[in-house]
Specification:
Strand 2, helix 2 (39-49) and strand 3 form a beta-alpha-beta unit. The protein has helices at residues 12-23, 39-49, 63-72, 87-92, 94-115, 149-167, 201-209, 237-250, 270-281, 305-311, 319-332, and strands at 3-7, 27-32, 54-57, 77-80, 119-125, 172-178, 180-182, 216-219, 231-232, 234-236, 256-262, 268-269, 287-290, 299-300. The chain is α/β, with parallel strands linked by helices.
């Protein structure tokens, strides 16, 4: 049995991936500072999996803690989810994002190297493509002009990882560029539980549907898209989690640094998502048009062919399933994990 460190493993994507790893037979240690997550998520992961994990509350920027961890635990790989992820917030608080996402990753990688741990899966983002040069977006699409500090922080870590792989051939690195994760585990026990007002579309829609928020603000109706609203590639979080297992397996034979898009290859507009949710939930979602947000782009969806060819990975769950699973999570957990 291999032992894996999952940073940010109590968060939305981290918890679903931790569950997938436990189900696959891995021994898991989760490190999370609980700044935007709940330890209750890990209790539920253990319940679903029927297996225990080890949890350490701590921050990836704490080099002393990491050094102690690696001296006490022999791990085979690190899956790195710990990071701040809200585009709009990053525009308002850029230094916080660079500190947490970039500096935190540097401290973690330094501790790994000191401990002789060289297998690494990084949670990156399609935002590294900026306003993409082509649609759908292949991994060969130029990066380097993200439109917000969040995307730049992810690209900085990608650059760090490229340099690391060149400097030391012992590193085996998978960089996974996510598109837009949505949905929840089919059990309804784990899902997305943002602090405060949600930054992402579907959690906001869910809270409007149950009356916690009065209406959905649609940011921009004048994009060059069929209905004027932004188009994104929405991927079920369980499919996304499966992609991490495929990438981890690939690192057993692949050296250096490798990049894969994790998306469906299908784009949906904001209004199409609202319509799909209303059909799945039989709830009306009142909307109002608001100004565009800084850092947003018109259209972004993946060409996922490389992941299918090299990893044997392909998204399986469609938009209806994403909406149904998200709605089940919301109904079962009206206050998120706060219910305990």
């Amino acid at each position: 049995m291999k032992k894996i460190l999952v940073t940010g493993g109590a968060g939305y994507i981290g918890s679903h991936t931790t569950l997938a790893l436990l189900n696959a037979g891995f021994e898991i240690v989760v490190l999370d500072n609980l700044s935007n997550s709940s330890v209750e998520a890990l209790s539920r992961v253990e319940k679903i999996a029927g297996r225990a994990l080890t949890f350490i509350e701590g921050d990836i920027r704490n080099g002393t803690l990491l050094g102690q961890f690696f001296s006490e635990h022999s791990v085979d790989a690190v899956l790195h989810f710990a990071g701040l992820k809200a585009v709009g917030e990053s525009v308002m608080q850029p230094l916080r994002y660079y500190d947490n996402n970039v500096h935190g990753s540097q401290v973690l990688l330094q501790a790994m190297g000191n401990a002789g741990v060289f297998n690494f899966v990084f949670s990156s983002s399609a935002t590294v493509y900026g306003d993409p040069a082509q649609i759908p977006i292949p991994e060969s699409c130029p990066v380097g002009q993200p439109t917000n500090p969040y995307g730049r922080s992810k690209l900085m870590v990608e650059d760090m990882l490229r340099d690391l792989a060149v400097s030391d051939p012992r590193w085996h690195i998978a960089i996974l560029r996510y598109f837009n994760p949505v949905g929840a585990h089919e059990s309804g026990l784990i899902g997305e539980d943002p602090n405060g007002i949600p930054n992402n579309l579907l959690p906001y829609v869910l809270q409007v549907a149950v009356g916690k928020l009065s209406e959905l603000s649609v940011f921009g109706q004048d994009y060059p898209t069929p209905d004027g609203t932004g188009i994104r590639d929405y991927i079920h979080v369980v499919d996304l989690a499966d992609g991490h297992l495929k990438a981890l397996a690939a690192l057993e034979t692949l050296k250096g640094v490798h990049f894969w898009n994790l998306g469906t290859g299908q784009g949906y507009s904001v209004l199409e998502i609202v319509q799909a949710f209303e059909a799945a939930s039989d709830r009306h979602v009142p909307c109002r048009i608001a100004p565009r947000r800084p850092g947003d782009i018109a259209t972004c969806y993946a060409d996922p062919a490389k992941a299918e060819h090299e990893l044997g990975w392909k998204s399986k769950r469609g938009l209806d399933e994403m909406m149904r699973d998200a709605w089940r999570w919301q109904l079962m957990n009206p206050n998120g994990y706060a219910q305990g």
